[in-house]
Write a structure and sequence with these properties.
The protein is about 0% helix and about 35% strand. It has about 80 residues and is mainly β.
Length: about 80
């Protein structure tokens, strides 16, 4: 896996010593990816490029024509629209 393409906020799947750990990337420094595991019980908090087996990039949401009648969502905020 190429570490240069991984950015903060992305999700990685790491396999270390036969264990699989999922986590959100906090920092990429000197070829090592530091992440926050989704399960707090996981013992690993960093991985090399060789140990990363999956990567999902965090991207912005799609903007369509029907989004004009909704309020803009602040960065980091989720919105839930309930249809009645």
């Amino acid at each position: 896996m190429r570490v240069e393409r991984i950015a903060c906020g992305d999700v990685v799947k790491v396999q270390v010593r036969g264990r699989t750990v999922w986590g959100e990337v906090l920092e990429v420094k000197d070829g090592v990816v530091y992440f926050r595991p989704i399960s707090p019980a996981a013992g690993w908090r960093h991985a090399s490029a060789r140990e990363i087996v999956g990567h999902w990039r965090k991207t912005g949401g799609r903007r369509g024509d029907n989004d004009q009648d909704h309020e803009p969502v602040a960065h980091g905020q989720l919105s839930l629209h309930v249809w009645s």
